[in-house]
Design a protein that fits this description.
alpha+beta; Lipoprotein; 2 helices
Length: 198
Amino acid sequence: MSIRHTTKGRTVLTAVAITTGLVLTVAGCGGGDGDKDKDASSSSSSPAKGGEGEDDKQESGAPPAQQVLAEVKGGGLTLAVTSATRDGGGFVTVEGTVTNGSGKSWVAADWRGDERELAGNGGSIAGAGLIDKTGRKKYLVLRDTEGRCLCTRFTGGVQPGETTEWFAQFPAPPEGTNEVDFQVGAMPPASIDLSEGE
């Protein structure tokens, strides 16, 4: 019996030793992979914090740069036209930016237009026009039944160094007319190409 118990004991000890060895091996492998995963995640997150990955995210998150169709300057202001699109309903929507480089607050009083009907539009781009040189016709900003322009109002003015966006809607020139001049206030005319809307 002592030999039998000894053999059984050795078998049990061998089985325990093998099992323990396997458990430690698996645990060791698992721990090593975990460390590698941590290292991999650390190294993969490191470039995202200060490497190329962040630059890619910033570029994709940033608004795309606007294409400037025309730019004119006058009185310390820079007027840029970034879009001039024919809409389906027979209108043209012109959009852009104005930058105040005059050194003082600007309220767009002379951009409102001289017509009595436009007096209620305050500081706005209501006095703008599209000039079709080929057809010899000027298109004024559209208005609602109460004389309010379908355009931007510069509420509170534009402070020195600031840039603000604007828009104005006009009746569309005939289909064959693809180039017009945009003009407002004392600013020089800006020649722009009309594009077709979606």
